[in-house]
C-alpha cells in the first residue's frame, strides 16, 4: 500500500498568515524591527525555530525561548479560528483516498493540539495516524517519524512525503523516503525550497500523487 506522509502546518493547515501576524505582534510589543511581509517571512523562516527567532533579532538575554514560545502559542490559539485548509488540500486528500492510499500526518505540533485541530477541520477520517511531538517548542519530527516507521514496518520506498519546508525534506530523507514534494504555499519561499530540492511546486494542485 502506498503511504502519503503529510506535514501539517503550512501543508494542510493554512496558518502562514496567522503565524506572521503573531510574530509581527510579538516584535512590535518588544520594540523590535518587524512588520514583515509574507515574502520576507517565507525567506526568513527556518528550522530549528530557535535559529529563526535569532534571525528576527531575539537574543534571549532578558527572556527565554520558552517564554516567547508560550506567548506565541497563546496568541496563535486565540487566532486559530481564522485558519482553514491550504487551497487544494481537501481535493488531494480525496484523490489519495480514492486511489486507496494510506494518509498519515507527521507534524512538529504537540500531539494533543494536532488531534484537536485536525478534528476541528473535519479531516480526522482522512488519516490513519497523526504523529505529533510532546511539547510546544517545534522540535524535530525525525525521531517521531522513525519510531512510527519502525512500529508499523512501513517500507520507505512505498511512501511519498508532502511538505512546505526544508525540514520536511530533511525528515523525509532521514527516514529513507526519497519521494518528497515541497509545496511553496506555506512557510518557506519557492526559491528557498527549489534551491535545495528539484521536486518543488508552487501550489498543492500541482502535486502528483
Structural topology:
Blueprint (H helix, E strand, L loop, with lengths): L2 E4 L6 E2 L1 H14 L8 H7 L4 H8 L8 H15 L4 E2 L3 H10 L3 E9 H10 L8 E5 L8 H11 L6 E5 L2 H9 L5 E4 L6 H7 L3 E2 L8
Parallel strand pairs: 1-4, 1-6, 4-5, 6-7, 7-8
Antiparallel strand pairs: 2-3
Short description:
The chain is of the alpha/beta class. The chain has helices at residues 16-29, 38-44, 49-56, 65-79, 89-98, 111-120, 142-152, 166-174, 190-196; strands at 3-6, 13-14, 84-85, 102-110, 129-133, 159-163, 180-183, 200-201.
Question: Could you characterize what this model shows?
Answer:
It is built from nine helices and eight strands. The mean pLDDT is 95. The longest helix is centred in the middle third of the chain and has 15 residues. The relative contact order is 0.20. Strand 6, helix 8 and strand 7 form a beta-alpha-beta unit. The strands form two sheets. The protein has a six-stranded parallel β-sheet with strand order 5-4-1-6-7-8, with helices on both faces. The chain has a two-stranded antiparallel ribbon with strand order 2-3.
What attributes characterize this protein structure?
alpha/beta, six-stranded parallel sheet, two-stranded antiparallel ribbon, 9 helices, 8 strands, globular
Q: Treating each run of at least 4 consecutive H or I residues as one helix, how many helices?
A: 9
Tell me the β content. Answer: 15-25%
- Compute the number of strand runs: 8
How does the major sheet shape up?
A: 6 strands, parallel
The helix/strand order is EEHHHHEHEHEHEHEHE
Structural class designation: alpha/beta
Helix content: 40-55%
Uncertain segments of ≥5 residues (pLDDT<50)?
none
Please state the CA-atom Rg, rounded to the nearest Å: 17 Å
Shape: globular
Strand adjacency order, main sheet: 5-4-1-6-7-8
What is the residue-averaged pLDDT?
95
Distance between the termini: 13 Å
Amino acid at each position: 500500500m502506498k503511504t502519503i506522509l503529510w506535514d501539517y502546518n503550512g501543508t494542510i493547515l493554512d496558518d502562514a498568515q496567522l503565524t506572521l501576524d503573531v510574530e509581527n505582534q510579538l516584535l512590535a510589543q518588544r520594540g523590535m524591527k518587524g512588520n514583515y511581509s509574507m515574502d520576507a517571512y517565507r525567506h526568513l523562516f527556518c528550522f530549528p525555530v530557535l535559529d529563526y527567532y535569532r534571525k528576527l533579532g531575539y537574543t534571549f538575554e532578558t527572556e527565554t525561548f520558552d517564554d516567547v514560545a508560550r506567548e506565541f502559542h497563546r496568541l496563535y490559539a486565540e487566532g486559530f479560528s481564522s485558519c482553514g485548509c491550504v487551497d487544494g488540500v481537501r481535493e488531494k486528500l480525496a484523490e489519495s483516498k480514492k486511489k486507496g492510499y494510506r494518509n498519515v500526518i507527521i507534524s512538529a505540533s504537540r500531539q494533543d493540539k494536532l488531534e484537536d485541530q485536525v478534528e476541528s477541520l473535519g479531516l480526522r477520517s482522512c488519516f490513519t495516524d497523526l504523529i505529533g511531538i510532546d511539547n510546544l517548542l517545534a522540535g524535530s519530527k525525525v525521531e517521531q517519524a522513525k519510531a512510527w516507521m519502525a512500529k508499523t514496518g512501513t517500507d520507505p520506498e512505498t511512501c511519498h512525503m508532502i511538505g512546505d519546508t526544508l525540514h520536511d525534506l530533511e525528515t523525509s530523507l532521514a527516514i529513507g523516503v526519497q519521494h518528497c514534494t515541497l509545496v511553496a504555499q506555506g512557510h518557506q519561499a519557492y526559491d528557498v525550497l527549489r534551491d535545495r530540492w528539484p521536486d518543488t511546486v508552487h501550489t498543492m494542485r500541482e502535486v502528483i500523487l
